[in-house]
Amino acid sequence: MGASAAAAHAVLAWSHSVHTVIEGGRAARRNMANRTTGHRVAVRGRPASSGDQDRAPPPSLSHQLRNSGYEALLTTALLFGVATAVRWVIGASPVSRAIPGIHIELLLVGVVVGLLLAGLILSPLGHASGGHLNPAISLAMWRLRVFPGRSVPLYWAAQLTGSLLGVLLARAVWGPSVAKAPVSYAALRPAPGWSNGMVFGVEGPSMAAIIVLVGIFLSVPRLAPRVPWLVGGLIGAAIAGLGTVTGGCVNPARQFGPAVLAGQFGFLTAYLVAPLAGAVVAAWLLGRFHHRKVLTPRLCGHPSADAAHDVPP
Asked: Which of 39, 78, 217, 279 has the fewest CB neighbours in a 10 Å radius?
């Protein structure tokens, strides 16, 4: 747990320094964009409508690639933290020997991962990219029309790459014990007797419930800043509550890297597809029954100065 907390602190400090370096250039580009928007001219003799003025320009490829890179780094940090927590709390260690049972171990892992996730969302890189760290979140934000569809594949590729890199980093830092049972690269397996359909039936609705709550919070200005703690708390609760049945994955990136490196492909399809299906259902439910617009795709709850790029073209 101490090692995971130290790693999280180092990642946050490093991301702050990276974000500070680029802030000057971004500020200049924002000033130019503001001047351009403020001096919009009439087209073909017709005054620009308020809808034209509010429509954001499409995000540039460099902007998308930069934020995708941030997502890769954030997901790397998340999976390193997950694998570290499993290594020391579930695997053979003085910590695991001092804990009386699996339910307390899962509760401790849930607390560590939840706090780490909230910290990554609140980090400078999380502010810049949106801090999704989950392909299902990126898909939901696109379906809610606050995130560009062209960025979704880039974010997915970055998040899955970060999943692999985070577990490989944990293997390099903590040694062969990460690859051996019961750690097994932190790969999840459902309880004995469970099928892919049963895993899908738990993981999909769990992800849908999380996204519905996130969407509601992000549509209310006074609640939006609390989303990092909401997400961290919900993911921690999923780990503690579902850990003995499905593992409490609710994130394709959480299982992808560990399962690939551990060679556990039997349930991988369910773990990858169920959260995505839950995201689509949740976005539909919010659009159908919730009459407030989601304000930002950023899980920190604050539209950044690049908020013009939040809205798809």
From this structure: 39
